[in-house]
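Final report, section 2: Outcomes. Of the targets proposed, Peptidase S53 domain-containing protein is the one most frequently requested by collaborating groups, and we therefore present its record in full.
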Amino acid sequence: QGLPTFQFSALYYTPKDFQGAYNVTGNKPGYNVTVAVVDAYGDPEIYQDLKAFDKMFGLPPINLTVIPVGPYHPIYGVLTGWATETALDVEIVHAMAPYAKVDLVVASNNGPALFKAIDLIVSEDLAQVVSMSWGAPENLYSASGFYAVVDGVPIPNYPYLDYYFMLGAAEGISFFAASGDEGAYGGTLTTYGGVLFPSSSPFVTAVGGTSLYVNVTSGYLSSYNSTVTYGYETAWSVNPWYAGIGTSTVSSTGGYSTFFPAPWYQIPITHSKFRTTPDVAADANPYTGGVIIVDGQEEVIGGTSMATPLWAGAIADVDSYLGESLGLVNPLLYEIYENKTLYSEAFHPVTFGYNGKYSANSSYNLVTGLGSPNVGGLEEAISYMLSHVTHLDISVSTFEAGVTYPWYMYGSTFTVAAYISTQGGRTVTNGSFNAYIYTLDGFLAKVPLTFNGTYWVGNFTISPGNPPNVWSIVVNGTAYNETGVGAVDVDVGESVNILTPVGDFLPIDEPITVEVCIYYPNGTPVTSQTFTAYFIQNGVSYANVTLLPTTTPGLYKGVTAFLPPTPQGTYILVINNTYGSAYTYDYVGGVIEGLVFTPINDGLPSADPGQNVTIFGLAIGSNGLGIFTSNMTAYIYNPDNRLVASVPMVPAPDVPQFGIIDAFLFHEANFTIPSNFTPGFYTVVIEANVPTSVGTEVANFTTSFYVGSSTLTAEVRGVTTAYEGQNLVVTANVTYPNGTEVKYGEFSLTLLPSQFSFASLIVELDTYVPMQYDSKLNEWVGVFTVPSVLNDYTGYSYFYEGANPYELSGPWNLVITGVSAGGHNVYYSTFLNVMPYTYLGNLVVNAKNISAVPLMAFNGTTYFLDNVYVNSLKVSGVGGIVLEDSIVGELDAYNSTVVVENSKVIQVNAVDSNLTFIQDTLGGKNVALSLTSSTAKLISSVIEDSSYAFNISNSVVTQEGVSEVNVVNESTLPEPTVTYVSPVNVTTATSTVTVNITGEKLKVTSVKVDGSPVSYFISTTSGGVSVSVPFNASKLPDGLYTIEVTVSDGLSYTLYANFYNSYHEVVTSGQISSLHG
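The predicted structure is given below as tokens.
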């Protein structure tokens, strides 16, 4: 299927749509619950934006408090993009929990201040639910310990924040964090550590992303007035249209944590040693995004930054429904997952999709976790769990004398203390309880606990050789035939902070300095230990760098180089000794920025057999050169990771391609999907050899796209002509190759000027409207407004601004593009003829509002309206209005003077008005013109397609050069007819010729005999009028005479009657007869 160029498609949803899709119930969802939204810098327009947001979508006014943490300068939010993030987070929480109180906790920067914001929320117990739409890949933290030290300054690290999540959970706070927007790689060059913290904390609910498709039950998505129910969801999957350096896997981030052992609630399900993310998911695909207001403007936005407040709002609704705060909800959610009945009520499992390494499936998975919420069902399920499943409450802590935080050094002994009670509050004094210690290496030790009169306690001594960093301590046991579980995290070992290189591109054959800052948990620098840096690739260490102490206490350095033939590519840099460890990643070699264009830029970019994908790559060596000298090849792997194609890439020319793209500096390749490619996600790996002065550097790039089985079929019927500014409802039949209706997907409707077909990607991006499936029609429906001079261009951008009606008219393409939920795409185009008239609908014009009528002009005495299409135009009490070059369905004039020129009017009704029609076409209804107590002058006009041209009452019509086409009758009144002439033969010297004319409401306006006016007398008859014409036969010659009578019943008719003057012949005949007598 050949497409003229690349296409675009997307959907968007309002708060009401999200509420309907995720089944938000209750009269006041979120009432009596506070949600803390944590963001950096802030949004200077947040109050104004929320006011506009509430007004636009009919939400109750938000109860919002802004709480700065540190200096508050929200202008930085605008400069850094955090203002958009802030508006999104607050508005989506408010959308899902309209009656919840929202505390916007604003950190003064996007680093340590965010940690302080969490500290504040926990310390002050500000909220029951916390939403955090931020995070960073674990492999870029590059440090261990509660604090990472730089130049002697301690900076809170991930164990510090994890500790506050643990404390907050114990207070009853539910934390939600975005799992990430860049797939399994997390925007880095490796999936190892690609998950984001804080979402990877076991005391946080990690929220992944989906693509949401709804059932519309009323209204239109594009009009923001739709009501919906849940339809279907897929995972937010890799979109190769996003350019990336080294990788581009924009999608729902998920995978295995490198920071945290598997929490107790995941172990029975994942059977992994590691914490996995995400836990849950919700709509995040920007192509099925949400409408927000930011800086006063509407935006459609997505990401797990949207999914996170969707879930935070959902749990606020649950808290409100239950009348209590749930705290860490993960154990409950995973328990519900293991109960098929409850799970089916509370969740929507998401079974299809791919994030660059992991696939969604019918079980818990590393793309969408447990799935998306059915809020009403989740409320009922959690209520059932809390009321029917009894358990012991176990609160766990650890301590060591002289230690502030649970950060312990090797050789020390710490105490595990658990307070255990029944749900009724009775302290448990008897039973069997143990603490189980887990590390990233798995199970480490079991510590029996004994009751000391208040707590169940046990001690553990940390020995050299035990793994460093975060340990999970799980306490469980049995008493009174009930069980319970509680857990805490502790951190073990020194603070190891890698300063450089962190996530860097490293050159070959050049010195590379490794620099690390190492401190003890008590805050003193480590000065005399031995540390080694290991550069590891595929399990093999290719560089072991001894780090030596420097003159700066705690600072260690070492130098290495990657000399040929050492492999290039991604390395995991590990700093390790007996007492501590940290890691990051680096890349040795050149850099490729890459992306792949599929036929349609949509929420699931795909290509079907026979369609093309275009692959782009820009390679740069560490010396900044190699753009044109690189050798580049794209390798395509099938879903089984088998190489199925090698595609040489060539430098792109410095000319526009595909109508709009100048890919100069890039290499490119076009690849046609073979017919034997089976459906699934295919991986594209671009490799380049980049020549440099010190040798050849290797660069690579990875992304994916979906291959479908076949394209869809679409057809639009019955839409061929439209007017500028007209609202059109377009229905399309979209089917699979077997004829089955497509019910879920992402389809867009765009009206595209034929001359802009080459730029359809850009035009569609700015002017598309989403389509929706109508289950009653079994059709996809889209509603849009044809561009006109009246458009405010909110939806039409700059393309049509300033265009006049004639520039906007002509052939346009009606384009449908998109993809089904399962990855089958469609492109369909048909012509729409746009007429050069601006559609105004129905207009009522009077003396008070005439100046406000759209497009109405005034020259000081007369109003003018031209190039418009009006269904119904009612003019009342207007002294002078001229309608030019227009089309009117029905013109109703009351006590007005109206002139119509060069226009078409289908029906005219006038009362007490004066009308003039010049070079117009009138008619199309039963009666073309109906006039009451009015005058109408028709000049050089045509009356057509009517049963009656006129319906006249006490009115006068004059016509000059008027023709009629397909008109059955001139008037609803009977046409005047001459019924009687007497005498027909005049034989006397003087006579009166009488002409009787039938008709209704007739007036005689003139009488002529042989073209000359004559005097006449009129009398009425039961059927019309009688005209008497005195005739002096003696003075006029004999012969045939014609009486011409002009009468009017509002229309003017000229009737003819003939009579003979035989007077002279009769006289002569008599004379002759007397001679013969």
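The chain has 14 helices and 79 strands.
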